[in-house]
Amino acid sequence: MEGLASSPEETTCSEGEEEHKRYANHQGNQSNVQGASSQQTNSFNALNQLEDKMRRKLQFFFMNPIEKWKAKRKFPYKFVVQVIKIVLVTLQLCLFAHNRYNHVNYTWDNRISFSHLFLLGWDSTREINAYPPGAGPLAVYKLDEFYNTLDYAYTGYANLSNAIGPYSYNDENNIMPDPVFCQYNYKEGIINGFNESYEFNSEIVETCINFTRNDGEGFQSQRFLSNAGLNISFASLVRAKLMFSIKTINFRAAGPITPPDCFRFDVEIIFDNEDHDGQMSLSLEAEPYKLLCKGDKTYITDNQIDQVLRSILNILVILICTASLALCSRAIYRAQLLKELTVQFFQRAYNKELSLDGRLEFLNIWYIMIIVNDILIIMGSAIKEQIERNQFTNDQWNVCSLFLGTGNLLVWFGVLRYLGFFKTYNVVILTLKKAAPKIFRFSVCALLLYAGFMFCGWLILGPYHMKFRSLATTSECLFSLINGDDMFATFSIMSKKSPMLWWFSRVYLYSFISLYIYVVLSLFISVIMDAYDTIKQYYKDGFPKSDLHQFIGETRVEEVSSGLYRTQSSTSLNAVMNSLFCCNFYRSAYSKIGGGSSNHNLL
Fold first, then answer.
1. Residue 571's pLDDT is what?
2. Which end of the chain is more exposed for a tag (fewer CB within 10 A), N or C?
3. Which residues of 15-36 are buried (b: 16+ CB within 10 A; e: fewer)?
């Protein structure tokens, strides 16, 4: 029993070991607590670091080009590209507009000359677009007038040497080719008005014949057509044409490096009988085609210098617009990447979605407008190059002017963006932006009223008033009345054939003018003025901020020039986000922005 009893030393040693174990466990628990606290502190510091870097990145994104240059001292090449583009496309437009005016004016003057030479009954009063028209439509009403008009046109064509203009036949030996006469008839069209019967087949048949004159005899179209077995039935005749071609040369365009222009005009004298109302309208069309000239030996007709200079300008415009298109497209793409990065940051860091206004801040409408005008100018410059290489038709002049004109319009609209960087000029842009939704809703309501007046006027007043003959002219008339144009003429032109409709026209015009001038326009102006007053109040009290701009905060001037934004923080920001959230999305998305992101949105 004594052997089994424990001694006091053994008991004391056992208690010391247990106390040591308890102390060791306590120390271990304290170390775990301190480790967890240290991990939370590191996570909190990483989040703060991420917020600072994200805020700095977004602040740089929303800076203007001047602030970005101060922030990172990097050349604003996008801004310079836009300045160069404005200069080049404006120069190109001025040169093309001058050439197009000369071309259109020259072809129109030749058309007037052809009308005097080949149209029976043409006089100079028809050359002026007067309002109201000074003369009625040029038309034929009798059988003899129809054939006399054909004889007059043929005689003028046969005696082309009597014309003052330097006209020649479309033949290398200047021998007169036969003009071609074509008629377009209903396959069957017989009218028996005395017993209200007819025979009709709406299929149109084309018949053409060459007008050939025998030597020593005057040309008579009626006898020639009768001998050729071509009898004209005016009851079934829809349209008739007399066609021939004339060559000429324009010396006016000639200069030190520009040779004369050679043209061929395809002339068509058109008899229009589609209405079958006893009035066959008469008109002349002259389609110009540019030809390759063959100059003499004393005048250098080689236009290589002029062609090279114009081609260089066209190529420069295409290259600068292509560069602008690529840079703006890249900027929009990078902005969308940064938007996705910001959305994910708000979700992970604050557990909230970025608002719609915040998302729309990354969509730059100016960039979209620049991309559109770049595409238009590139297409217009390509067509212009073809025109200047004589690979063109007349329609291409109009298409080219449409592309270049619209593109230049948008280019100069884009200058407003740079004026918007200054507080004084930015008021206009902000006012239009603020008023746009209200103006749109207001315009929808005003347009419904306008459509009602338009359809009503077209239906009721159309047969009695020349300004309401068609839906298009009715709309133009009403829009002119809104702006106070030609009011008295609109009242006085109304025919008095129907007294009831004459009185209705007065009520109609008075009510429309009063409603739109005194009510609609006043409300329209008040909507814009309300937006203007709101913008002025914003300048005084501060602009409302979305959650994105609340996160970004204010960018101080001293921070911009301090060099804070010149550090390459893309890699560190990417590493912090991946270590904090363990998300590969940031690695793939932000790596596309990284490195080159310092130049992002420099425009």
1. 44
2. N
3. eeeeeeeeeeeeeeeeeeeeee
Q: Which residue has the tokens 């909190």?
A: 44
- Residues 123, 156 contacting (CB under 8 angstroms): no
Cα distances from 568 to residues 300, 302, 564, in angstroms, run 61, 57, 10
- What one-letter code names the amino acid at 273? N
Token look-up 């490096």 returns: 257
Alpha-helical segments (H) within 180-272: 221-227
Q: List b or e across 298-318, with b for residues whose CB sees 16 or more CB atoms inside 10 angstroms.
A: eeeeebeeebeebeebbebbb
C-alpha 25/C-alpha 29 separation (Å) is 6
- Indicate the domain borders of the chain: 142-278
- C-alpha–C-alpha distance, residues 397 and 399, integer Å: 6
The whole-number pLDDT of residue 57 equals: 80
Q: Say if residues 130 and 285 touch (Cβ distance below 8 Å).
A: no
- Burial status of residue 541 (CB atoms within 10 A of its CB: 0-12, 13-18, 19 or more): exposed
Taking CA atoms, 507 is separated from 484, 512, 515, in Å, by: 17, 8, 12
Residues 527/426, Cβ–Cβ less than 8 Å: no
Strand runs (DSSP E) across 148-232, as ranges? 168-169, 180-192, 197-210
Residue 384's nearest CA partner among 356, 404, 369 is 404
Give Cα separations from 275 to 202, 228, 463 (angstroms): 14, 28, 16
**Residue 393 in contact with residue 107, Cβ under 8 Å?**
no
Q: What is the pLDDT of residues 345-374, one digit of tens each?
A: 888 877 888 888 788 888 888 899 999 999
| Spatial separation of the C-alpha atoms in residues 211 and 180, rounded to whole Å | 6
Element of type H or E holding 322: helix 304-345
Q: For 544, phi and psi rounded to 5 degrees?
A: -65, 140
Helix, strand, or coil (residue 179): coil
Choose among 496, 495, 506: nearest CA to 469: 495
Q: Which residues in the chain land under pLDDT 70?
A: 1-47, 215-217, 253-258, 296-304, 390-395, 423-424, 546, 549, 553-603
Distances (CA, A) of 293 to 290, 363, 384: 9, 53, 20
366 Cβ neighbours under 8 A, 6+ residues apart? 414, 417, 603
In terms of DSSP H, where are the helices of 462-520? 471-482, 487-492, 499-513
Per-residue confidence (pLDDT) for residue 570, from 0 to 100 = 45
Report the alpha-carbon distance of residue 307 to residue 406 in Å, rounded. Answer: 25
